[in-house]
Fold Cytochrome P450.
Amino acid sequence: MAQDDVEQLLRYPIPNESALEPPANWARLRQRCPVARVALASGDEATLLTRYDDVKRVLSDPRFTRPTPADNAARVADVESGGVFNSEMATVLPQHGEGHLRWRRMIGKWFTAKRMNALRPGIEAMAERLIDDMVQQGPPADLKASLGFPLPVWVICDMLGVPDSDRDRFAAWSDMMLSMTRFTQAEIETAQVEFGRYMAGHIAAKRAEPGEDLLSALITDTDSDGERMSDATLVATGMGLLIAGHETTANMIGKMVAMLLADRRRWEQLLADRSLVRTAVEEALRMDANSGFGMVRYFTEDIEIAGTVLPPGTTAVCSMAAANRDESAFDAADEMNLGRSPNPHLAFGAGAHSCIGQPLARTELQTVLDVLLRKLPSLELAVDVSDLRRVEGLVVGGLRELPVRW
């Protein structure tokens, strides 16, 4: 990348027509401009980090966290609407320090390996049912609509004790709150109000008649200081888990299967050796070039990155997806190696703000892949890879649909 190019503001997210392959700019940025000035959808300027070591270091540094409303940070979305970044949910949940750790400890008890193993048989049974329904309808089918979306919604709704019959409402609210450019300010504000009112009513009902679900437990649980969650925190937690618990995994199921079917030798390799399912899931997570916006960090003091001193007030965008293609961190980084191990990818972030639900996401992805291989060994794409269409305008990446046949 020439110096003239470096001095110009890149648009971010970087435009990319391919649904599965990374923008060509990623490699050039890592090699020649690892600290790049970018213009966000809001028009505000931020700093983009693309090298593995830099992204991991910033995400792991406890001094730096997500911007708060008090910070003069670059806005991710357009001028007036901020979706999930400017919502009450973003301001109520503790973003850093001991308060954040206490919140994570209360939530984290529901995402242990023991709990995930207990959930696996139910996830497997639901995956089988959804696949059977898809097969009964006959090919071609949209794997995202038939399996990728309903499965994680069912799982997170079951964990939270909310009716999965409301999943279309959750999807609409989530998309609006994850909007960068797709929805209007009025639509986003309406979604925030409706979703918050829905969750507040649900929590009130759980308080009156508790169940054996996460939200019922959080109503009475106390943290290490003996404090219970406030109603506002309970509402924000329920909304956050519902959005994160289905949006990212629903999209990742589709992208993972698309990557494996894009070169069918990968699918055949898994059919021949099912023991590769776990490492194949991790490699799909690493190879995901359509993961979305990345993680934002706000610098409150000087930090030197790749020879550049960034001052306080800098908003940094950490591109985990670009970092996961860094040749200095992964041998043959642009090749999909289904047996790659170890695989210290950054798909779930790093440090104190790494994805709290990653054990659940891994369990769902592994289970879905295992069931698909067993029930639909002849699965293949029903369109050319070049015809797959990206989700646009949201902070999460994905495919609009995944047409398959068998």
Observations:
- The longest helix spans residues 231-262.
- The chain has one domain: 3-405.
